From TrEMBL:
Protein name: 5'-nucleotidase SurE
Protein encoded by which gene: surE
Organism: Vallitalea guaymasensis
Cofactor(s) listed: a divalent metal cation; Mg(2+)
UniProt xrefs under Pfam families: SurE (PF01975)
Reaction(s) catalysed by this chain's protein: a ribonucleoside 5'-phosphate + H2O = a ribonucleoside + phosphate
Length: 250
């Protein structure tokens, strides 16, 4: 299969390196990823300035790689439109350095790159693990994605579906299995801390912590209990439960 590999941590990030090293053993891959860190860019795209695309070499990776001076969604768009001339069978985004659980997916550049693929009629997988994970965890996550790809292909994953995968930062023998589950709800205790002044302008830095609501049968619950989680996502955000009710309002 021909796979497009991307991420939001940048083309030189350790997560994408581990993913490419594993997947190029079995598939024809091409890497198109941001030239720098683009975490939490969600589904933004670059409109006002041109994109700079450069071919780069990645250590121990044989496949072609390109950096893009834009967002993760930009990478998928320019890759499928210009860089890759043949059909892309699947897009894999990650391995993200940090979970994408619950409502985090709304901010995630990793997940948004995968969603952009489905807008281009290409099925996609997004994969993440805990941000402080050791190298072996990324290698382990890459092996699980190989399995997820095989299962997705054999079951004809629809071209408008993203499989959002999170892998706990534990050894393979400690992983209890794979759970298909819904997203949970994450809350953030945010605050902006004043860090000084710059030319008489106030400077604020975002600080705070994430508070996980461990509701059973959700992604955050299962990943904390030693499971790899898989959540199918779709870009249609319509709330069909109240669609008719809101229609009556107007």
């Amino acid at each position: 299969m021909r796979l497009l590999i991307t991420n939001d941590d940048g083309v030189h990030a350790k997560g994408i390196h581990a993913l490419c090293k594993e997947l190029e053993k079995y598939h024809d891959i091409i890497i198109v990823a941001p030239d720098d860190q683009r975490s939490a860019t969600s589904h933004s795209i670059t409109i006002a300035k041109p994109l700079i695309v450069k071919e780069v070499e990645l250590p121990d990776i044989k496949s072609k790689a390109y950096s893009v001076s834009g967002t993760p969604a930009d990478c998928v768009r320019v890759a499928t439109d210009q860089i890759i001339k043949d059909k892309v069978d699947m897009v894999v985004s990650g391995i993200n350095i940090g979970y994408n659980l619950g409502t985090d997916i709304l901010y995630s550049g990793t997940v948004s790159a995968a969603v952009e693929a489905t807008l281009c009629s290409v099925p996609a997988i997004a994969v993440s693990t805990e941000s402080s994970a050791e190298d072996y965890v990324y290698e382990n996550a890459a092996k699980y994605i190989k399995k997820v790809i095989e299962v997705a292909v054999s079951n004809k994953l629809h071209e408008d579906i993203v499989l959002n995968v999170n892998v706990p930062p534990i050894k393979d023998e400690d992983i209890k299995g794979i759970k298909v589950c819904k997203i949970g709800k994450l809350q953030f205790h945010h605050y902006y801390k004043e860090t000084g002044k710059e030319q008489e302008n106030l400077v604020y830095k975002l600080e705070g912590e994430r508070v996980v609501n461990h509701v059973e049968e959700t992604d955050s619950y299962y990943v904390d209990n030693g499971y790899v989680t898989v959540t199918p996502l779709h870009y249609d955000l319509t709330n069909f439960n109240i669609l008719k009710d809101v229609g009556k309002w107007f």
